[in-house]
Design goal:
The chain has 116 residues and is mostly beta strands. It is built from no helices and 8 strands. The strands form 2 sheets. It has a 4-stranded antiparallel beta sheet, with no helix packed on it. Strands 5-4-7-8 form a 4-stranded antiparallel beta sheet, with no helix packed on it.
């Protein structure tokens, strides 16, 4: 998924999606995890990623200030912060990328469906 977005008055191109989507973390060996893929034009970002449920409650923190590079994939196993499987439904991933040189922040959101 290629998108062009405006952030702080600047236009940038990025990719941000889950694959597979939906996924089924039921430990049957098929699509038990999903990967949050991202890419953009610059490599000097520190990224943080959170997963929220459809009510806006924090479910899990996948990354906390990690070097992002120009692209990457972050795995989510469908578990919450306590290691418990989340209920089926739609979840929202929120990524915040901070430019390590100038402090500018880019924010992206996408959704993923947990199935059984």
């Amino acid at each position: 998924m290629q998108q062009i977005a405006k952030s702080n008055g600047q236009t940038f191109t990025h990719t941000f999606y889950f694959e597979p989507n939906p996924f089924s973390p039921d430990h049957d060996g098929f699509e038990d995890v999903t990967f949050l893929h991202y890419s953009w034009d610059y490599s000097n970002y520190l990224i943080r990623v959170w997963i929220y449920d459809r009510h806006g409650r924090l479910v899990n923190k996948l990354l906390q200030s990690a070097a992002g590079g120009t692209q990457g994939a972050i795995m989510w196993n469908g578990k919450d912060r306590n290691g418990q499987r989340v209920p089926i439904g739609r979840y929202i991933a929120y990524l915040e990328a901070s430019d390590a040189h100038n402090g500018k922040v880019k924010r992206l959101k996408t959704t993923v469906v947990v199935a059984r």
